[in-house]
Amino acid sequence: MIKVTFIARDGKKYIVEGNDGDTLLDLVKNNNIDEIEGACEGCLACSTCHIVVDESWYNKLSPASDDENDMLDMAFGLTATSRLGCQIVLNQELDGLIVWIPADVNNLLLT
Question: Which residues, in sequence order, are bridge partners of residue 23?
């Protein structure tokens, strides 16, 4: 199992486990983390699964695709280590990953 810590807006920590090949959005859905929406169900059509990756972990991730970067441009609170949770696929190298849940989301599906 691969452990990931999500830190919510209010500082609450969700320490959850997933399997190799799961996405961060899968973990959110499987563990009822309501602070992240994932409105498009991971098909890269919104930015509601926007998360901020801890700087110490960011370079361990696969690079973001052009399509992911296009969606991130729509996210509120974008940072240098912002990613979409649906695009981060777990592997053993990410055991212990820490991510923050941004304060706001931009749901393009509702506009």
Answer: 89
pLDDT score of 105: 56
Q: What is residue 103's predicted lDDT score, i.e. its pLDDT?
A: 81
Task: Tell me the two tokens of residue 50.
Answer: 């926007």
Determine contact, residues 85/28, Cβ cutoff 8 Å: yes
Using CA atoms, how far residue 83 sits from 1, 11, 91, 110, in Å, is 22, 19, 16, 21
DSSP codes joined into one string, 15-41: EEEE-TT-BHHHHHHHTT-TT---TTT
**What is the secondary structure of 57-110 as a DSSP string?**
HHTTSPPPPHHHHHHHTT-TT--TTEEEGGG-B--GGGTTEEEE--S----GGG
Tell me the one-letter amino acid at 96: G
